[in-house]
Design goal:
With 285 residues, this protein is an alpha/beta fold. The protein is 48% helix and 12% strand. The mean pLDDT is 96. The protein binds nicotinamide-adenine-dinucleotide.
């Protein structure tokens, strides 16, 4: 999609971080923007801020884990703006810890938001884009979706799944010859509130009081906070996404140490050797 002006974008997880930056960048191209998020107050604030900057916005409280909420989001969008051209399935949450200790509540919550949220977005919006025969789907995966690391098994699993799902979608649309593009956004550490994801964990999926909390889990939580604090500005990620939509580019990857970690993993697979642990840390060389 080359021309954004006057068209309509829907962004989930738009109240904060990468989603808010995406909404702002798309609005900056003259798009009408529908902001969807589960965090009510932050959502209203984000929509008001963008409207104050001159954007035409609609805020729809949406829990992406609930299929009916995502259907209602599409209905509200079509009622208000009559079309959807870009859908960013971006809402996501993080939790860390040892794979064998992660309580089922962690799995249900993270897979619900990070994977099923994208599934609901695809099931709801792709038929609309196909009907128009115009549009672009952006699914937020992560560099954690092209690498693997210890103490992040639940999150990495969700992001690998989003990448595979996005690749399948890409193939299907290409085989149809549809004028609907797909991009998989794989950011590195970004300065957002992802390290405070617990703020949106629903009560029924809270970790049980007796769930084990390993030292590795605590260290990982601290590492995530440090990493996002020195992370890439979300605006940089949003600019990459605009370029990818314009260029119809699928992989929106990070460079540097993360890219090398991804290449090492692909080489492990190619050679059939055991997984190399290559922490994505810049060496300065
Ligand atoms: N920040 C990073 O370092 C980083 C790196 C790679 C990928 N990502 C991915 O980027 C995406 C955006 O995260 P972020 O870093 O901007 O974090 P963030 O916490 O700043 O924003 C995430 C947004 O998702 C919303 N959300 C959470 N649960 C939801 C639900 N059930 N329904 C609707 N909205 C919900 C939150 O309210 C929040 O506004 C996520 O998919 C995340 O996994 C982030």
């Amino acid at each position: 999609m080359k021309d954004f002006n006057g068209k309509v974008a829907v962004v989930t997880g738009a109240a904060s971080g990468i989603g808010l930056a995406l909404a702002r960048a798309l609005a900056g191209q003259g798009m009408k923007v529908v902001l969807a998020d589960v965090e009510d107050e932050a959502l209203r604030g984000a929509a008001e801020t963008l409207a104050g900057e001159g954007a035409e916005t609609l805020a729809v409280r949406t829990d992406v884990t609930v299929a009916d909420d995502v259907s209602a989001l599409a209905e509200r969008t079509l009622d208000r703006f009559g079309a959807v051209h870009v859908i960013c399935n971006n809402a996501g949450v993080f939790t860390g810890g040892l794979t064998w200790e992660a309580p089922l509540e962690d799995w249900e919550w993270v897979m619900g938001v990070n994977l099923l949220g994208v599934v609901h977005g695809i099931r709801t919006f792709v038929p609309i884009l196909l009907e128009q025969d115009e549009g672009h789907v952006v699914n937020t995966a992560s560099m954690a979706g092209v690498t693997s690391m210890p103490f992040t098994g639940v999150y990495c699993t969700s992001k690998h799944a989003v990448l595979a799902l996005s690749e399948s979608l890409y193939h299907e649309l290409a085989l149809r010859g549809a004028k609907v593009g797909v991009s998989a956004l794989c950011p590195e550490e970004v300065a957002t509130r992802i390290d405070r994801s617990e703020r949106n964990r629903p009560d029924h999926l809270k970790r049980p009081a007796d769930a084990p909390e390993s030292a590795e889990g605590v260290v990982m939580q601290e590492a995530i906070t440090q990493a996002v604090n020195r992370g890439t500005p979300p605006e940089t990620i949003a600019a990459r996404v605009l370029d990818a939509i314009r260029d119809e580019r699928f992989y929106v990857l990070s460079d540097g140490a993360w890219r090398r970690a991804c290449e090492t993993r692909l080489e492990d697979i190619r050679l059939g050797r055991n997984p190399t642990f290559s922490p994505p840390v810049e060496t300065g060389s």
